Amino acid sequence: MPNGTIAAHDEHHGQHHPRLQHHFQDLEQQHEASTLGMWLFLVTEVMFFGGLILAYTLYRIWYPTAWALGSEELNIYLGGFNTAVLIGSSLTMALAVRSAQTGAQRATVGWLLFTIALGLTFLVVKFFEYKEKFERFHVPGPNFRFEGPESPHVQIFFSLYFALTGVHALHMIIGVGLMSVITVMAYRKRFSPEWYTPVELGGLYWHFVDIVWIFLFPLLYLVDRSHHIVSELSGGAGDRGLQGDARRPVLHAHQVRQQPDEAGRRHRLLLPGDHADADVVRLSVARMVYGAARIDIARFDHQPDAEVAPCSVAACSRLLDPPVCL
Amino acid sequence: METIVYEEPTTYLNHQHSVASWLLTYDHKRIGILYLIVVTFAFFLGGIFATLIRLELATPAGDLFSADVYNRMFTMHGVTMVFFVLVPAVPAVLGNFVMPLMIGAKDVAFPKLNLLSWYVFTIGFIFTVASMILGGVDTGWTFYTPYSSQGSESNVLLTGIGVFITGFSSILTGVNFMVTIHRMRAPGMTWFRLPLFIWALYSTALVMVLGTPVIAITLLMLVLERGLHLGIFDPRLGGDPVLFQHLFWFYSHPAVYIMILPPMGVISEVIACFSRKNVFGYSFVAFSSLAIAVFGFLVWAHHLFVAGISPYSALIFSFLSFAVAIPSAVKTFNWTATLYEGAIWWKTPMMFAFGFLGLFLIGGLTGLFLASLGLDVHLTDTYFVVAHFHYIMVGGAIMGYFAGLHYWWPKITGRMYNDTLGKLAALLIFVGFNLTFGPQFILGYLGMPRRYHVYPPEFQVLNVLSSAGASILAVGYVLPALYFLYSLKFGAEAGANPWKATGLEWTTQSPPLPENFRTTPVVTEGAYAYSKREMRVA
Ligand SMILES: [Cu+2]
Question: Complex ipTM, two decimals?
Answer without folding.
Answer: 0.91
